Structure formats: C-alpha cells, structure tokens
Amino acid sequence: MNCYIAGTGVFLPARVVTNAELAPLLGVTPELIEDRSGIRERRWAAAEQSASDLAASALGSALVDAGLEAHELDYLIGCTLSPDYQVPGIAPIVQRKVAGCRPVPAVDLRVGCAAILYGLQLARGLIESGAARRVGCFGAEAQSKGLDLSARSAEVTMLFGDGAGAMIVSGAPGPARGLEVIDVLIASDGAYAEELVVRAPGSANGQHWLAPDVLSSGRCYPSMNGRSVILHAVRKLAEAAEEITSRNGIAAQEVDVIVPHQANANLLRSLAARLSVPAARVIVNVDRYGNTSGASAFLALDRARAEGRVRAGAWVLILAFGAGFTWGAALCRGLDGEGG
Amino acid sequence: MLNQVVMSFLSQAAREARTEMPGSHESLFETGVLDSFSLVEFVALLERECHITVRDADLRPENFDTIAKVEAYVRRTAEA
Questions:
Q1: Which of A106, A148, A312, B72 has the largest count of CB atoms under 10 Å?
Q2: Which of B39, B41, B44 sits opposite A227 (nearest CB)?
Q3: CA nearest A123: which of A294, A5, A295?
Q4: Can you give the pLDDT at residue A26?
C-alpha cells in the first residue's frame, strides 16, 4: 500500500529573540553566535504557550493543507523534548486541543531531533497494516523554557528555539503538492546517550529524580558534547543518505532536495560537502528559527513545499540526527498538484 | 609524523584563525585552529591521507585535540 505526506503545517511563536538580545545573557557577542551556529534569531514561546499549544496550531494547518477535518484523523503521534507535563504525554493533550478530533490513539515518541523520521516510519507502518488511514504526526518544542540563560551554558543555549511542525500521513495523496513516502531508515546507538542529554528530572539521579540541588547543579539543563555530536552526526547522516538512496536505485547526488534537521549551519555545510551535493539543494532555515529539535525537520519540510522546491517527480531526502543518538533518513518523491 | 598535506591543512586553519601554528601539545580547539566544522573536514582528511578508518568509538574530540594526540592515534590505528 502506498503512503503519502498529504499535508504539512507549522506554527511559530510570535516572539523573535535576536542574537543581540541573547548574547549579553550568555556572556558572548552576537557575532560569535552567528559564527558558531549560523543562527541570527530564534522564536521563544510566551509564558502562557505550551508545546501542545504550538502543536495543535501546526496540526490544524496541516489538516487544512491536506483538505481534511480533524474528525478524519484516526491516530496521533507526538514528538517533543519539552512536554507540557512529565505525565501525561503531549499527544493526548493535542488530541484535546484540536477541535473535532475524535478519541483516537495518541502516542508520544521521545526521540529528539530525529522525531520526523521515527514518526513517519510508525505512521507508515500503521497505514500499511490497516490500523490507521490518516495519521497526524507532529514535532513541537517550547524548549526555551528549559534553557540555562547563563555563560556556563552559552554553547548550548545559543542554539535552541521554539516552534512546531506537523504532517498528515495518509494512504491517499492530498489535494496540495504532497510527497509519496518511498522508504524510511532509522537507527539508534545508546553508547552516546550522555553526549546530548538533559539529566533531570529522571530516575538515574539517585533516590530523587528532582533533588533540591538539581537547579544549581545544572542537571535539568541540556548538556552537549558539541564536537562529538557533529562528528557522529555528519558521518551517520551521510551513511544513512547513501544507504537509503542506494537501496532504492539512485545516487545521493541525484536527490533534488535535502530536508535536514536544522542543527546548525556548520553541520549542514559539512553534510552537503560529505554527500558531494550543491549546498543550494539543502533546505536551510536555522538562521531564522535556530535548532527547534523535534520540530526542526517538520519546519524545513514545510518550507521546502512552500517555496515550490518539491516539484512533481523530485527526489526529496529527509535527514535527521539527535539525542540518543538516534538518526535516519526518509526518501520521498514529489507529487503533482492533484496528488498523482 | 603527520604528512605534509595534513600539516598544510592545520597551517591554513591556523592562518584563518589568525593564530600561530600550535605546538605539539597545545590544544587545536582552544587555540581556535579547529572548530566543529573544520574538525569534520580534518577527520576525513586524516582517513584519506593516512589510510586509516576512524571507528565510530574513536570519533571523540579528545583523539584530535593536539598534534601529538593525532599522531599517536594515527600510529595506533595504522598498527592495529
């Protein structure tokens, strides 16, 4: 059975945080942030906005794009590193917030920046098995609320932004210019779990997962071995790109559009070089939105479609890598306006 | 000893970072010679020029932090 991305949508908080605003808090210069990451600004959620609010709005846009009503969804897959609560997950809360959504299964995937790929493979499996016909899949982050705004975390805090993206995965193509999902490849290697980690709250923190010293110790903030992450990310993403294209009978250099997780501009440049593809084929929005983790590749995919980069017959390669490590690739093909 | 191509890469990186070429035991990262972008290029160059394969488990910044550590790593890997 064929599987399609029938619609996409995004939602970004209104507040723009420039490097000029952020840099003094982190004890660095705005220029250093741009040099290190390629990021010029990012969005931060308002105090009254949670990740599920962003997700519900993005999912609503994706439904419109797919020409569907909320009651036509029969499964929700939600991905976030910045959930509204520890329990329950974000997906049931989004089910509540999307008007008209029936009491469908709603499940969270905690796979960091590779969210879109894990969500897509699960959605595809549900559709192919007949368990679902239309799956709403989203990535949403309000991670600015969990950042350490001090010099000790400058290298990490400068990267992250908030936002949400969603897609409707369906057994039928939508009315807009969507994509046919050809193949999905995902992987993980837990040997590197602590290279990119938020340690608390969590049950590996002794007797109490939120001990009184958690804030002062910094264990509730993201911690990253940036050099290790980029070394592994470029290698694993290139290997995934080569494997998924090879097993589908094309060369990586034949891909028309690369939709990568927007980690930072350095990684995107390194990836293009490693794959020997022109940088112009790589969708880049990290300069405007920063690294939005689980939402990032959703935002990039929506941008590729909005800019008309996903032409009929175009090979589209989605690549993502994140905490875990988890990573992978999805190979898709652009459809024409009628879905054929 | 690292070959001329590898050393030329580091010399060029030092010029771009507007710093002196670091001594054998000075950090390539702290002196600004290697950043996260050039580190990826540097490891690929080592694999090509020194005819080694850097295993996933060895893909750690500390293996490439100084010229001495790079030389030791390349020697170890080539002998393995």
A1: A106
A2: B39
A3: A5
A4: 96
Identity of the residue in B29, B35, B40 whose CB atom sits nearest the CB atom of A231: B40
Catalytic residue (choose from A3, A113, A137, A332): A113
Q: How many CA atoms lie within 13 A of B8 on its CB side?
A: 5
Under DSSP, is residue A88 helix (H, G, I), strand (E, B) or coil? Answer: coil
Query: Residue A167: in which H helix or E strand, if any?
Result: strand A163-170
Provide the residue type at B24 as one letter.
Answer: S
Could you tell me the two tokens for A320? 């993502």
Contacts of A268 (CB under 8 A, 6+ apart): A38, A260, A262, A279, A282, A284, A286
ipTM: 0.89
Contact check, Cβ <8 Å, B56/A189: yes
Phi and psi at A333, nearest 5°, equal -130, 130
Task: Decide: A221 and A251 in contact? Cβ < 8 Å.
Answer: no
| Dihedral (CA of A271, A272, A277, A283) sign | positive
pTM of the predicted model as reported, rounded to 2 decimal places:
0.94
* Contact between chains at B59 and A231 (C-beta distance less than 8 A): yes
SS3 content of chain B, % helix, strand, coil (to 5): 60, 0, 40
Q: Which tens digits make up the pLDDT trace of A275-297?
A: 999 999 999 999 999 999 999 99
Question: Could you tell me the end-to-end alpha-carbon distance of chain A, in angstroms, rounded to an integer?
Answer: 15
Task: Tally Cβ neighbours within 10 Å of residue A253.
Answer: 11
List the one residue out of A258, A244, A101, A255 whose CA is nearest residue A166.
Answer: A101
- The reply to whether residue B59 touches residue A230, judged by beta carbons under 8 angstroms, is no
Helix pair A265-275, A226-246: axis angle to 10 deg: 40
pLDDT along chain A (340 residues), means of 10: 95 98 96 92 98 98 97 98 96 98 98 97 97 98 96 94 98 90 98 94 89 85 92 95 98 96 90 92 96 98 95 97 97 77
- CB contact at 8 A, A281 and A55: no
